[in-house]
Automatic annotation (TrEMBL):
Species of origin: Streptomyces cahuitamycinicus
Region (Disordered): 1-33
Matching Pfam families: Ald_Xan_dh_C, MoCoBD_1, MoCoBD_2
Domain Aldehyde oxidase/xanthine dehydrogenase a/b hammerhead residue range list: 38-144
Biased composition (Low complexity): 1-15
UniProt-recorded name of the protein: Oxidoreductase
GO molecular function: iron ion binding; oxidoreductase activity
Length: 769
């Protein structure tokens, strides 16, 4: 047999290749996965331009001080320095901010937090820029910082707008209602840093028309453009933001106080200017999760059913408001958790201090209250001698129930089903008291005490988050879908931050049009706005816009065929690139039907409106909600207080699974982030000074800290008002897992565990039972 014949015979005998993943419901791999793996993905820190200058920012070493003078003469005289800018060089608005514009581009009279920008320098070498920034002489009158949010109510105003950012009183039901048992608690949640992967970096390039282009890892490019245009004194059309590769984001990815000096320097010098922040600068500049103080009193009857919840919630916003108003609304609205509470009286405040600014971090507001109300549920169970899961089941929220805000839950709310799933899942085996299994013990092979000191605990957490914006926020996104020569292109300003939007957009177009090759265009502000990449917005709003545009293109594609065969387009279907009619008379391919034509359509998606909470904390403030239940199993060394999370069993309300692999990864990542909140992550700021602003002093969970995550149930009850019926999946595991871990540590130790992260001394038991 010849080689050619043998090859042909082998080819005939070989099995057909597996078809590539396709459309909604398939585990389509990310389009950028290979580039990121090979190191060729274009991050902002990799950008370059001819005639490039380097920038550096001078930041305040004090959390609170009066600026007496700023002398830039020494910096300006240094060889290689091209420009030095301060507040005097800001041609437009002096203030900016994500939610509230109350933060100066550069501090002018008063410094309000450690690391606040004072001046910025552009030079021909990064070392020269840093030395020149250090050469700017600032004379301060150091003031006593206000770092305790409780003291902010009585302190002198730290800001022209005062120290109180927002107060929400929520009144629901009968204030005289009382239960047969009462449990109380005081809880503290620490300051979590979003710790974005990769350097915060940007490039500003001046334009011939006197404008500027900003190349940034922005998560909300249009908002960043508008803030920049206002600060630069330019029309928005003369400022363009081009989104570079975003190396992951669990919060606002780029600090606007980092972007604005960059653009000012480019406009001042007429040259491209690049700024790459150190990790220390990132810790000092961007926002963090709100540290929170919570006081709770729960009333319940003898069966463990909730009668009334009273709470006080105090958010430390840091020096500026940012998105603290939105975070407080979520905290107050969800202060009772996913439980039926007929009477609720909640007081919430967000206040300014001289601590680092707080803002949007995944699950803001909802995460803090979840840790507190779940601790209260454990106390009720202990006082009544009931199983903690059973107490939660007796109070579980369901579709049709009413929140303490007065809003009826119209979306799927399978809280009881989620709880039952994690409760009934088999527990992991106990570790053996053998040397070869020491790695199972808390602290690792060298860090644990005696195996006899280890106690196992099982605890529960049930959490909820809202999706999209709230309280009247106009959530809208626009997308365009084009098809030409068998290739589809999606144009949408939704930024891919790791949540998988670009993959989802490809799947939607594949599903709707039967086109295999789909490209998602790079994002810039020449496209219509799509909003910020948070709270599941792009899955819902941007994905909905892509779907609508694709369906409009589908109609354009099918109408000529339907007209030719005398039928409606509804009688035609597209499957695996083929167009067929219900009766089999018509059968052709999408490529043949296109016949070289270019088809395109633009569409918007805007969810139903919401309303602000009124003076009593009442109102239909949220578009939709998502729920999660987690059972945590931990091992605690009760002599040294070390904790190992053995397993987290997760059941989640997802609406519809759009990409199984991607969804699983998002849940596992969210759970792991929550473990960091529970055990290790706390940015310490004694007297307002950020201590150890690096990844050595700030303990992120690593792969060695990640527990076994068992996804035991994904409830696919579609939300009829959401495109595809899908819900956001990333935030609610972050919200729920810290509460579950704390619950398990309480079960293991009998200690109250009322602070996150859990300190070792909180898990030490002085007497072994």
């Amino acid at each position: 047999m010849s080689n050619e014949a043998a090859t042909a015979q082998a080819a005939e005998a070989a099995p057909a290749p597996e078809p590539l993943p396709h459309g909604i419901g398939a585990s389509l791999p990310p389009a950028d996965a290979r580039a990121k793996t090979e190191g060729t993905f274009p991050y902002a820190a990799d950008l370059w331009a001819e005639g490039l200058l380097w920038a550096a920012v001078l930041r305040s070493p004090h959390p609170h001080a009066r600026i007496l003078s700023i002398d830039t003469s020494h910096a300006r005289e240094m060889p290689g320095v091209r420009a030095v800018v301060t507040h005097e060089d800001v041609p437009g608005s002096m203030l900016h901010g994500r939610g509230t514009a109350d933060r100066p581009v550069f501090a002018s009279e008063v410094v309000r937090h450690h690391g606040e920008p004072i001046a910025a320098v552009a030079a021909d070498h990064p070392d020269t820029a840093r030395m020149a920034a250090a050469a700017v002489i600032v004379e301060y009158e150091v003031l006593d910082p206000v770092t305790d949010p409780e003291q902010a109510f009585e302190a002198e105003p730290l800001h022209p707008d005062g120290n109180l950012i927002r107060h929400i009183p929520l009144h629901h039901g009968d204030p005289e209602a009382a239960g047969e048992i009462v449990v109380e608690g005081l809880y503290r949640i620490g300051r979590q840093d979003p710790a974005p992967i990769g350097a915060e970096a940007g490039l500003a390039v001046p334009r011939p028309d006197g404008g500027v282009e900003l190349y940034l890892a922005s998560t909300d490019p249009h908002a960043d453009r508008d803030a920049a245009a206002a600060a630069f004194g330019l029309e928005p059309e003369r400022v363009k933001v081009v989104v570079t590769g975003v190396p992951g984001a669990t919060a606002d990815r780029e600090d606007q106080g980092f972007q604005l000096p960059l653009g000012l320097l480019a406009l001042r010098t007429g040259c491209p200017v690049k700024l790459t922040a150190t990790r220390e600068e990132s810790f000092l500049g961007h926002v963090h999760r709100h540290p929170t103080l919570l006081r709770y009193r729960h009333h319940a009857d003898a069966e463990g059913r909730l009668v009334k919840v009273e709470a006080q919630i105090l958010l430390d916003a840091g020096a500026y408001a940012d998105t603290s108003s939105e975070a407080l609304a979520a905290a107050v609205a969800f202060a009772c958790g996913p439980y039926v509470v007929p009477n609720a009286f909640i007081e919430g405040w967000a206040v300014r201090t001289n601590n680092p600014p707080s803002g949007h971090v995944r699950g803001e507001g909802a995460m803090q209250v979840c840790a507190a109300y779940e601790a209260q549920m454990d106390k009720i169970a202990k006082k009544l001698g009931l199983d903690p899961a059973e107490v939660r089941l007796r109070n579980a929220l369901a579709t049709g129930d009413v929140l303490p805000t007065g809003q009826t839950v119209t979306c799927p709310a399978p809280v009881a089903e989620l709880l039952q799933a994690v409760r009934d899942f088999p527990l992991p085996p106990l570790p053996k008291d053998a040397p070869e299994d020491e790695w199972l013990l808390p602290g690792g092979p060298e860090g644990a005490g005696e195996p006899g000191a280890v106690r196992r605990g099982v605890g529960y957490g049930v959490g909820m988050v809202h999706m999209l914006g709230a309280e009247g926020a106009d959530e809208v996104s626009t997308a365009t879908v084009k098809v030409h020569d068998g290739v589809a292109t999606v144009l949408c300003a939704a930024v891919e931050t790791g949540q998988g939007f670009t993959t989802l957009a490809r799947q939607i177009v594949q599903e709707t049009l039967g086109v295999d090759e789909v490209h998602v265009a790079p994002v810039d502000t020449d496209q219509p706005p799509a909003g910020a990449g948070c709270r599941g917005r792009h899955t819902w709003v941007s994905g909905g816009a892509v779907e609508r545009a694709a369906k409009m293109v589908r109609t354009q594609l099918l109408q000529p065929l339907a007209h030719k065969f005398g039928m409606s387009t509804e009688l035609l279907q597209i499957t695996d690139g083929k167009i067929t009619s219900y009766d089999g008379v018509l059968s052709t391919t999408v490529t043949e039907a296109l016949d070289g034509k270019e088809l395109w359509a633009t569409a918007q998606c805007r969810p139903h409106p919401t309303e602000p909470l009124n003076e009593a904390g009442q109102g239909d403030a949220f578009v939709g909600m998502a729920f999660c239940a987690i059972r945590a199993v931990v091992d605690v060394d009760i002599e040294i207080g070390s904790v190992r999370v053995v397993e987290l069993a997760v059941a989640q309300d997802v609406g519809r699974v759009l990409n199984p692999a991607q969804l699983t990864a998002r849940i596992e990542a969210g759970v792991t982030q929550g473990v960091g909140i529970a055990l290790t992550e706390n940015l310490r700021t004694p007297r307002g000074i950020v201590r150890h602003p690096d990844l050595t002093g700030y303990a992120l969970p690593t792969a060695l800290d990640a527990p076994d995550v068992r996804i035991v149930r994904l409830v696919e009850e579609r939300d009829v008002v959401a495109p595809f019926g899908a819900k956001a999946v990333s935030a609610v595991p972050v919200v729920t897992s810290p509460a579950a871990v704390a619950s398990a540590v309480r079960a293991a130790t009998g200690r109250p565990v009322n602070r996150l992260p859990i300190r070792p001394q909180a898990a030490v038991v002085t007497e072994r039972g």
